[in-house]
Amino acid sequence: MRTCCCLILAVCTLVGLCARADTVKLKNGTALDGEIVSEDASSLSILLQFAGGTITQTRRIDKADIATVIRWTPEQRAERQATRDYENLQKYQLNPQDSYEIAYYDQVINGVFRAFQREYPNSPYTSKVTERIIEWKAERDLVAAGNVKFRGRWSPAAEVAPLVERARGQQLLQQARVLISQHQFEPAVQQLQLIVRMDKQPDLVSQAKPLLASAFQSATNSLDRQQRQLTRDVSTAQQQVDQARVALSAAEASLRQTTGGNSQSTAQAQAAVTRAHGDFNAARSYLDFVKGQLDAVKQKLTSLKSPAPAATASTNAPQASKSQPEPSSTPSPAAESPEVLGGLVTWVKNNWVALAVIVAAILFFISRLLIKD
How far apart are CA 162 and CA 304, in angstroms? Predict the structure, then answer.
């Protein structure tokens, strides 16, 4: 019954919002309901939502095609934003099977629920958020008193600690096997290192040790190969920088010789200097890129070969469910080991401009070699 009521409330809210949306009526009779997000002298862009808001599209419309525009009031916009933020709170649910660490309860209560109340003190959802706070605080106090919810039952933490540790170890072992099958040896090593320190789980330790030895060897071999290749790449890139520097100096000398002479020759010499500058900058960027990769591999090797930190699996409470969303602007209650691929993707996103320059430089060098041949 409670679930049905929530669904009905959500539907009614959505209908009410649609009725108050910005409406753009076109001259062909089409009416678009959404939120006008930008506008200039000749056009406007409206954010449209479909499938209950799960699909969005921003559509640009020429004002010459618009018949009328009905806009939201500031109050309606504020109400809609409050509704959106309240709907985001639904991601944070108590786990019926397991409890969390105290820090995670505090993060959700203070960083999510109470933050919403501070942002929208007069919201119609205040009472519902207060009920959520009471529920979360009650469970948080049980954990603070030394209890653990494990597989749907509350028990003293000391009694279920071995069971919690074993469940955590089994989970880590399964994750490590998957990572090894995917040739992600470094994170697999980190997972297995946690298991081998579980002194009270000898059977899990005996399963983890041979996997750890194999994954460690594979990881170090892979990183050693990368280090050797990147060392060669750095040497090659340095040669390219030196060659580009010589070419730039020659181009600048040629420009100085043509100064005061034929304007066409001067323009050609200036263009040659510009190209040489571009070649030099691209070569230097590529060198910096390869050096950064080499440094990263060296750091990984050092970290991998250094003594692993002590196991961090909590014996007081099960780890937070992986599907549980984390509060924005607050640390994760149970951060997983970083994936190598994820780090690479993040690096590429942050350095895509440099990569584009490097690719262009490489293509330019290849084209010059082909022309010479």
Answer: 29
pTM exceeds 0.90 for this model: no
Beta strands in 130-275 (DSSP E): 147-150, 153-156
367, HSE (Cβ side, Cα atoms, 13 Å): 7
Task: Give residue-wise pLDDT tens across range 283-330.
Answer: 999 999 999 999 999 998 888 877 644 333 333 344 444 445 566 543
CATH of the domain at 37: 2.30.30.100
Kindly calculate the radius of gyration of the chain based on its CA atoms and give it in whole angstroms. 30
Q: Domain count of the chain?
A: 1
Q: Please report whether residue 268 resides in a domain.
A: no
Q: Is residue 71, in this structure, part of any structural domain at all?
A: yes
Q: Which domain does 65 fall in, by range? A: 2-75
Helix axes 185-195, 157-181, angle to 10 degrees: 160
* Structural domain includes residue 366: no
The residue with tokens 């690096």 is: 347
Separation of alpha carbons 23 and 30, rounded Å: 10
Report whether 101 contacts 333 (CB < 8 A): yes
Q: Is residue 324 part of a domain?
A: no
What is the enclosing helix (H) or strand (E) of 50?
strand 43-50
Q: Which string of DSSP letters, residue by residue, matches 220-247?
A: HHHHHHHHHHHHHHHHHHHHHHHHHHHH
341 within 8 A of 121, measured Cβ to Cβ:
no
Tokens representing 224 are: 């050693």
